[in-house]
Amino acid sequence: MIVSFDQPLPAAELDQYLADIERAMLDTGLAQSVVARRHIPIPGEEAIPALIATAIVQVSLADIDTLAKAFTAPSLHEVIDRWQSRHPYKVAWANHEPLT
Description:
The chain is an alpha+beta fold. It is 38% helix and 23% strand. The two termini are 18 Å apart.
C-alpha cells in the first residue's frame, strides 16, 4: 500500500495514521504481518510526474483469497474513512508474491 497524503501531516499525526492502519489490519486476524515506514525524500523527486509516497504499508497475507477478505474488513474501512475525512490521501496498491 503506497500512501500519499494531499498535504503534509505533522509527524505525530502520520505516526498515528500508520499505527491505526497497522492495528486495523492486524485486528482483522487475516494479516500475518504489517510493517509501515515513512517515505525518505530525496532532492529533485518532486520533479518526477508520479505519485510520491508519504509512507509505505506492507501487509503479508497467506494467499489471494485472504487478501480479498482483508479488503472487505469493516474495521479497516472505518479507519480509512476516518482518516480520509480529516486528511485526504491517495493510495496505490502493489499486490505481489513475496519478495525474497
